[in-house]
Amino acid sequence: MKKSILIFGAVIITFSLTAFGVINWNELKINKLQTYDSKNIALDTTSKEKIKSRIITDFIYDVGPRFGPIKKSNLDNAKFIDDFIEANEVQDMVTLKSVNIIIIKDDKQSDIHAIGYSRALTDNQIQLLQQSDYSTNFLVRTEFLKKNKDTGILEDSYLSPHLTVVPEKQAEYVNGKQNLINYLKEKSLEARADVQVDKLQPAKLYFTVTKTGTIENVTLDRSSNYLEVDKKMIELITNLSGKWKPAVNNEGENVDQELVVSFGLMGC
Questions:
Q1: Measured between alpha carbons, how far is 160 from 138 in angstroms, rounded to an integer?
Q2: What backbone torsions phi and psi does residue 182 show, to the nearest 5 degrees?
Q3: What does the pLDDT look like over 49-98, one tens digit per residue?
Q4: Is the pTM of this model over 0.85?
Q5: Rounded CA gap, 267 and 193, in Å?
Q6: Rounded to an integer, what distance in angstroms lies between the CA atom of residue 110 and that of residue 127?
Q7: What is the mean pLDDT of residues 10-19?
Q8: Cβ of 219: how many Cβ atoms within 10 Å?
Q9: DSSP letters of 15-47?
């Protein structure tokens, strides 16, 4: 009798353990399925975020004049290099050797230039500057001797500020510059999803905001090294929604202004 009871008890225990194992296995299976489903949902809802995570964040780093802006009215009144160079930098010049004002065309230094040898601009330099129209790009190459702060020895040095002539009031995107940059970044995400940073190049896209506030002359000056990205950027600027306030000259008249979208790898 005792033997039968023991056998019966063993069977009950074995059955219970088996049932418990099956239940636990099913629960584990359900939990895995739920986890898998949750991951799938997360993948669907964060696809754009995943694209963003493998794309450089500073893809578009500026929209504006090609170089540092200088108003046409200020340029017409320029008489000294101090009008282009910071006062503390001028003070550091122990001996001024030369000042060469060079017009930049197609992003290269041209043969159009005027040279002088003092802080005061020459008549030729003044004339060259005053003849420069809006969106003219130029540099002021200034060579001089500067005292080394550590050794006290005079050393050759130079400055070459690059500037772009702009109207009294520049063209303005009505929704704001930052909104424009954000728009171009967001809308170009898919086109640049597979971009490799080490192959990306600094690119320049020129366009003109006309005196009526429309966009014309969209031109790619430098490629990002990715054709699809270049094409997308041209398309976005050409078909840009939103309006522009035209540039205004010193006499209150609307004028054309050329602007540049700098994108791709940070460059000059």
A1: 10
A2: -60, -40
A3: 544 444 555 677 789 999 999 999 999 999 999 999 999 999 999 999 99
A4: no
A5: 21
A6: 17
A7: 46
A8: 12
A9: HHHHHHHHHHHHHHHHHHHHHHHHHHHHHHHTH
Q: What gap in Å lies between CA 231 and CA 250, rounded to an integer?
A: 36
What is the pLDDT, as a whole number, of residue 128? 98
Structure tokens at 255: 């004028």
CA distance 232 to 190: 10
Q: How far is CA 52 from CA 48, 195, 196, in A?
A: 6, 11, 13
Can you give the pLDDT at residue 195? 86
Q: Spell out the residues 6+ positions from residue 128 whose beta carbon is closer than 8 angstroms to its own.
A: 101, 103, 112, 113, 114
Q: How confident is the model at residue 267 (pLDDT cuts 50, 70, 90)?
A: low
Q: How is residue 158 written in tokens? A: 């130079």
8 Å CB contact between 132 and 165: yes
| Phi-psi label, residue 266: left if phi above 0, alpha if psi -120 to 50, beta otherwise | beta
Cα dihedral 207/208/214/216 (nearest 10): -60
Q: What is the Rg, in whole angstroms, of the alpha carbon atoms belonging to the chain?
A: 33
Strand partners, 260: 64, 206
What pLDDT score does 57 carry?
Answer: 57
Amino acid 30: pLDDT? 41
Alpha-carbon gap, residue 123 to 116, rounded angstroms: 9
| Phi (first) and psi of residue 103, to 5 degrees | -80, 135
Spatial separation of the C-alpha atoms in residues 209 and 134, rounded to whole Å = 12
Identify the band that residue 29 occupies on the pLDDT scale cut at 50, 70 and 90: very low
Contact 209, 257 (CB under 8 A): yes
Query: Two tokens at 40?
Result: 């799938």
